[in-house]
């Protein structure tokens, strides 16, 4: 896309709706996509992006909830546009480099307000990073977690998760960090990551919100017509109900050198949407995503609008998962995952999003949890291995396993904000 001329992009803008056009630009990335995005915003006199103040940001990088909007029920609205920027160290870093990196992040915080109309972001570090700088890693290396996956692993050093309702903000922030834009949102960058980090692979992108999967589906193909117009996620239902999310406190590291931080796991999945929508009907989709009770009692509605802020899977429905497997021959994804709750609270704060990276529909399942072990435990509950052969198959009838393919995994330590620049240096 970098090589594609601006004129051709303008043609493209006419062909696609504005929204699809923005998603395409975020997925493409780079300076040409950024200037096309800014031109489009300017031509429609879109509101200016609010600038920010680093002093107004909280101590925890993952503390986003206080500034997210809410839907009509009170569930938090995740930021619509996302980029995961992988980074590799290109120097043997010292304390001066830490100060430079911190200054680059603070410049972004001055450029954009601390909310979804500005920029929310986290910076996380892999076990490879800690090995490179000669420190003991506070988190384990990623491994395969289920019997039928053979994923690639994130082995770059660091990752910045950029999130905003504004497509131009995620694109511009990415370019500014790496030194290609000197004054994002008219605020001078006091430093950049250039010379300390360079881009790694793979850059990942995505989107979440009512109507976005449908509009994007039209553009890439592989997304069946049955996907409801207003669904926020590719599989056709709402997700991230308030009651099924861990609190930010629950996922905060409670002690040790990174107290106040969190961990991130990213599981990149492709989703077989054709089979999901064309082989199964709405009843079966509800049974496999929520529970057989949700299907027979019609608890969900077309896309989850009947659920308010809670799926109601915790407690009885989660406990009867194996009975459902035997009696119904099908069990729900949410019902299985809820078996991993502790003291009634889920262990994961899910901030996942849809993607069409690689021109196929998928999900970058990004979650925060206090420890990577919390993720592993929940993911194993979701895999439901022990239930196989007891009315459901390893994948068949076993939640959504038949439709998802794990391509990649990565583990990250997200330090508290005051340690986010090259920890352990
Ligand atoms: C294509 C991939 C996925 C889709 C479409 C999906 C969708 C959903 C939906 C619709 C719910 C119920 C609504 C809600 O509570 O938000 C849910 C719950 C949940 N999912 Fe997923 N999910 C996916 C992958 C994963 C993965 C990889 C994990 C990792 C362990 C996971 C963990 C959970 C958890 C912990 C819950 C909440 C369970 C509880 O109530 O305690 N999901 N998911």
Write up this protein.
- The protein has a domain at about 1-45.
- It contains 14 helices and eleven strands.
- The protein has helices spanning about 5-15, 20-30, 30-45, 95-110, 125-130, 165-175, 210-220, 275-280, 280-290, 290-295, 315-320, 320-330, 335, 370-385, and strands at about 80-90, 120-125, 150-155, 160-165, 195-200, 205, 260-270, 350, 355, 360-370, 405-415.
- Strands 3, 7, 8, 9, 10 and 11 form a six-stranded mixed β-sheet that branches. Strands 1, 2, 4, 5 and 6 form a five-stranded antiparallel β-sheet that branches.
- The longest helix has 17 residues, at about 95-110.
- The model is unreliable at about 1-5 (pLDDT under 50).
- It binds protoporphyrin IX containing FE.
- Protoporphyrin IX containing FE binds near residues 241, 271 and 334.
- Keywords: Iron, Metal-binding, Oxidoreductase, Peroxidase.
- Pfam families: DUF7405.
Quick structural gist:
The chain is an alpha+beta fold and 425 residues long. Helices cover 29% and strands 15% of the residues.
> Helicity range of the residues?
25-40%
Radius of gyration: 21 Å
Order of helices and strands: HHHEHEHEEHEEHEHHHHHHEEEHE
Number of strands: 11
Shape: globular
Keywords: Iron, Metal-binding, Oxidoreductase, Peroxidase
Organism: Halovenus rubra
Cofactor: heme b
Protein name: Tat pathway signal protein
SSE layout and pairings?
Blueprint: H1 6-15, H2 18-28, H3 31-43, E1 81-89, H4 95-111, E2 120-125, H5 127-132, E3 152-153, E4 158-164, H6 167-177, E5 197-199, E6 204-207, H7 212-220, E7 262-271, H8 273-278, H9 282-289, H10 292-296, H11 316-319, H12 321-328, H13 333-337, E8 349-350, E9 353-355, E10 362-369, H14 372-383, E11 404-414
Parallel strand pairs: 3-11
Antiparallel strand pairs: 1-4, 1-5, 1-6, 2-4, 7-10, 7-11, 8-10, 9-10
The structure holds protoporphyrin IX containing FE.
């Amino acid at each position: 896309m970098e090589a594609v001329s601006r004129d051709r992009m303008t043609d493209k803008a006419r062909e696609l709706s504005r929204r699809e056009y923005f998603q395409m630009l975020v997925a493409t990335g780079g300076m040409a996509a950024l200037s096309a995005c800014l031109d489009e915003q300017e031509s429609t006199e879109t509101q200016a992006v609010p600038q920010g103040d680093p002093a107004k940001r909280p101590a925890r990088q993952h503390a986003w909830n206080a500034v997210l909007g809410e839907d009509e029920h009170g569930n938090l609205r995740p930021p619509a546009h996302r980029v995961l920027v992988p980074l590799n160290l290109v120097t043997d870093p010292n304390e001066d480099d830490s100060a430079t990196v911190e200054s680059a992040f603070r410049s972004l915080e001055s450029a954009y307000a601390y909310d979804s109309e500005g920029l929310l972001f986290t910076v996380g570090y892999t076990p490879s990073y800690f090995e490179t700088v000669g420190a003991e890693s506070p988190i384990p290396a990623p491994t395969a977690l289920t019997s039928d996956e053979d994923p690639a692993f994130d082995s770059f050093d660091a990752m910045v998760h950029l999130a905003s309702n504004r497509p131009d903000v995620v694109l511009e922030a990415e370019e500014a960090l790496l030194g290609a834009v000197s004054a994002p949102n008219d605020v001078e960058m006091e430093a950049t990551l250039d010379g300390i980090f360079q881009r790694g692979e793979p850059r990942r992108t995505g989107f979440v919100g009512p109507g976005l999967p449908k509009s994007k589906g039209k553009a890439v193909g592989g997304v069946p017509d049955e996907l409801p117009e207003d669904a926020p996620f590719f599989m056709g239902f709402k997700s991230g109900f308030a009651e099924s999310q861990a609190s930010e406190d629950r996922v905060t590291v409670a002690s040790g050198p990174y107290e106040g931080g969190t961990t991130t796991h990213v599981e990149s999945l492709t989703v077989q949407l054709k089979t999901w929508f064309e082989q199964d009907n709405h009843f079966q989709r509800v049974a496999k995503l929520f529970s057989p009770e949700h299907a027979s009692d019609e608890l969900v509605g077309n896309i989850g609008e009947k659920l308010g802020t809670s799926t109601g899977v915790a407690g009885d429905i989660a406990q009867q998962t194996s009975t459902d497997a035997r009696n119904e021959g099908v069990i729900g994804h949410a019902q299985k995952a809820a078996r991993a709750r502790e003291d009634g609270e889920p262990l994961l704060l899910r901030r996942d999003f849809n993607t069409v990276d690689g021109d196929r529909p998928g999900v970058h399942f990004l979650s925060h949890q206090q420890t990577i072990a919390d993720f592993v435990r929940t993911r194993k509950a979701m895999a439901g291995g022990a239930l196989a052969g007891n009315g459901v198959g390893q994948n068949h009838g076993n939640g959504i396993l038949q439709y998802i393919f794990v391509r990649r995994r990565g583990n990250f330590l997200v330090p508290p904000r005051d340690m986010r620049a090259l920890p352990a240096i």
